[in-house]
Structures are given as structure tokens and as C-alpha cells.
């Protein structure tokens, strides 16, 4: 890596790791401390819980308090604070909130609780969206009419384009293996063409990440940005079955991202033929106001403008045991990763 770093010259290189799984793996391996001088790794908008806007959290919490409703959610969501407490606090006060490991398990819950309306909180990127699609198709096939999803699924590419159109300095992207298994690395060719930034897919162990960074530096040194992979499982075309499933069940929609705001066509919502499974329509949910959590700098962190250590609350008022914002709640959040593995470097 160092030879390419030298070949680039003295300018600082900013590489964004787009995925929370990478963020955690980088921190766990202590990679930041071993990088060549002048190479900076920043976290991007890749942690599903962290990018989910507060307005969605408030909708989910409001829904969970309704009589006859059971919300089913991935575990990390339960501790994200909303304006009136978290899902966990709503549960303590009597709301029916269940943690599930998959959308399919939420369909099981609906079948086991026919007197309840079970709403799955569907967040995440192209990695998790196909599973939501399969759950909706299963519910339709099996006539599970008390199942629905509150969708906040996001698409990776529009977020990258939005970041590159802003003032944030990014010289290349380390792309996540799991999302790229679905999308294929060919999906990033538009980013390379339009913005001239390398997009290199890597897996999630330290050697894969180092390989990916080395490839980014090599491309920058050569002045030849490419979309490519160092992760053999990822192919250029992605997974056609998963992509077809997304196309069959979902349609692109404008989506609100934490701190970034609304990005046109950056989300996925259910197609009209699945409206009966769309919780927002089924329960006539009102739009909620977007806002930032007081004192929390998650928005700056997921856009690469700040690091966890820049937040005055980090490790003091905000810890994994008592988190203030989603970047500390989530098992893929940048603040949680820094707290768990990188505090030593900073003390
Ligand atoms: S340390 Fe806590 S309050 Fe600060 S940005 Fe991270 S999650 Fe938000």
C-alpha cells in the first residue's frame, strides 16, 4: 500500500467505507492506526439504523403504541431515541414490540397472533430488502392479512451521488461485499464515469479491507479509477434473482436520510399491488417532522464530516449502555465501533 501512497504524492487521500460492517471490521482490526500517513478512512452512510431518519422512528413508535398493533423489528432499532422515547421504552410501558432476526419471522408472528396487526419495521439497504420482498410475497401467498411493513429501505447509489455532489472530500469508496453481491460491482460504473472515483468492493476481514484499500490507492496512483472487486464472491452483474425480486415487489421513491435530507429516488416502497401490506397506507400514518437528536452528531459522522471522537458526548454522556444517538446504538454504528475498539488510540 505504501508504494502507491508515495506515488500519489503529498496530497491527503480520503477513502470512505460505505458500510457499517466495514466500519466495525476496520475498528476491530485496528486498521486506522496502521494506515500509511496521509490516508484517511471515514465512515459513510452505510449503517441502516444510523441513516434512518428520526421521522421514521417517531412513526414506528407512534404505531407501536396503538391498540391491537404488534411491531416487529431488528434489535438495534429498539434503543434509538425518538421524540417521545424509544421503542424499548414503549414496550416497557406495555406496547407490543418484538425483536425478530428476519422479515420472515415477522410473518410467523402474524400467523401466531391472528388477533394482532403485525407491522415489520423494514429498514436497510439492498442486502435486507430482498428478504422483506420475500416476506410480503409469502404473506400474500398464504393470505396473512394481519401482516404489513413500514418501509424505510434505502438504495446505496443515490446516497453516494448525493455525497459526491456536496462539499465532502472523497477520493474513493470501499464498497461493501454483501450489498455488492446483490447489485454487482457493475452498478458502481456510473459513479466512476460521472465522478471519477474508484469504487472497490471488499469482503469483511482485515486482509480483504487492506486489499481493497491497496487497489483504491493503485487506481489513484495510476489515474485510472475503476469499479471492481477484490472479493471473489461478487460478480459484475450481481444476483439477478434478487434484483428481479426487488423490481417485482418495490418501486423507487424519494427517501429521507438522516442529516442528508430527501434524496430523490433513493428509497424503495411497495408497489401498488402490494398496498394491503403497506403499513403507512393501512394505518393512515401521518408524516412526521424530521429533526436531529439534541447534541448528537451522527448526521455529521455518517456523511464523513466528523469522527466519533469529535462529539463532546462520546464516551461521556453517550455510551453503548446509555446511547444518545443511533451511531452508538447500532452494532454497525461508527460511534459504537470507536467506543468498543478505538478508544485506546485516543487516550
Ligand atoms: S457519540 Fe453519541 S451523541 Fe455523539 S454522535 Fe455518536 S451517537 Fe451521537
Give the strand order of the largest sheet, numbering strands 1, 2, ... along the chain: 4-3-5-6-11-10
Rg calc? 20 Å
CATH homologous superfamily grouping of the largest domain: HypD, alpha/beta domain 2
Count of domains: 2
Question: Hey, roughly how much beta strand do the residues contain?
Answer: 15-25%
Plain-language structure description:
- It is a single chain.
- With 347 residues, the protein is an alpha/beta fold.
- The chain folds into 2 domains: 2-48 and 157-229, HypD, alpha/beta domain 1 (Rossmann fold, 3-Layer(aba) Sandwich), CATH 3.40.50.11750; 49-155 and 239-282, Rossmann fold.
- It has helices at 2-8, 20-29, 48-51, 54-64, 87-92, 103-112, 129-142, 156-164, 177-183, 189-195, 206-222, 240-249, 279-282, 298-302, 326-329, 334-346, and strands at residues 13-17, 39-43, 69-73, 96-99, 117-124, 147-154, 172-176, 199-202, 227-229, 250-257, 261-270.
- The strands form 2 sheets. It has a 6-stranded mixed beta sheet with strand order 4-3-5-6-11-10, sandwiched between helices. A 5-stranded parallel beta sheet has the order 2-1-7-8-9.
- Strand 8 (199-202), helix 11 and strand 9 (227-229) form a beta-alpha-beta unit.
- It is globular and about 65 Å long.
Amino acid at each position: 500500500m505504501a508504494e502507491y501512497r508515495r506515488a500519489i504524492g503529498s496530497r491527503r487521500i480520503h477513502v470512505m467505507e460505505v458500510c457499517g460492517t466495514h466500519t466495525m471490521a476496520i475498528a476491530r482490526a485496528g486498521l486506522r492506526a496502521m494506515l500509511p500517513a496521509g490516508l484517511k478512512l471515514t465512515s459513510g452512510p452505510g449503517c441502516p439504523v444510523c441513516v434512518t431518519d428520526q421521522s421514521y422512528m417517531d412513526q414506528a413508535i407512534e404505531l407501536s403504541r396503538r391498540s391491537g398493533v404488534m411491531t416487529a423489528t431488528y434489535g438495534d432499532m429498539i434503543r434509538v431515541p425518538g421524540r417521545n422515547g424509544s421503542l424499548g421504552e414503549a414496550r416497557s410501558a406495555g406496547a407490543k414490540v418484538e425483536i425478530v432476526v428476519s422479515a420472515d419471522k415477522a410473518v410467523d408472528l402474524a400467523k401466531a397472533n391472528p388477533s394482532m396487526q403485525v407491522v415489520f419495521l423494514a429498514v436497510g439497504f439492498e442486502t435486507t430488502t430482498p428478504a422483506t420482498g420475500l416476506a410480503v410475497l409469502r404473506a400474500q401467498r398464504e393470505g396473512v392479512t394481519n401482516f404489513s411493513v413500514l418501509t424505510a429501505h434505502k438504495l446505496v447509489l443515490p446516497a453516494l451521488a448525493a455525497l459526491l455532489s456536496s462539499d465532502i472530500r472523497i477520493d474513493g469508496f470501499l464498497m461493501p461485499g454483501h450489498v455488492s453481491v446483490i447489485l454487482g460491482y457493475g452498478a458502481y460504473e456510473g459513479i466512476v464515469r460521472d465522478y471519477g472515483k474508484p469504487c472497490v468492493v471488499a469482503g469483511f476481514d482485515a486482509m480483504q479491507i487492506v486489499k481493497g484499500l491497496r487497489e483504491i490507492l493503485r487506481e489513484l496512483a495510476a489515474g485510472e479509477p475503476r469499479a471492481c472487486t477484490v472479493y471473489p464472491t461478487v460478480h459484475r452483474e450481481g444476483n439477478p434473482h434478487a434484483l428481479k425480486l426487488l423490481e417485482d415487489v418495490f418501486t423507487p421513491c424519494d427517501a429521507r436520510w438522516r442529516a442528508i435530507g430527501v434524496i430523490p429516488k433513493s428509497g424503495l416502497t411497495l408497489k401498488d399491488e402490494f398496498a394491503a401490506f403497506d403499513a403507512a397506507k393501512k394505518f393512515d400514518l401521518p408524516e412526521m417532522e424530521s429533526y436531529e437528536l439534541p447534541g448528537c452528531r451522527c448526521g455529521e459522522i455518517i456523511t464523513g464530516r466528523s469522527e466519533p471522537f469529535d462529539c463532546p458526548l462520546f464516551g461521556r454522556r453517550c455510551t453503548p449502555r446509555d446511547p444518545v444517538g443511533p451511531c452508538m446504538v447500532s452494532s454497525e454504528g461508527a460511534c459504537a465501533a470507536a467506543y468498543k475498539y478505538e478508544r485506546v488510540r485516543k487516550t
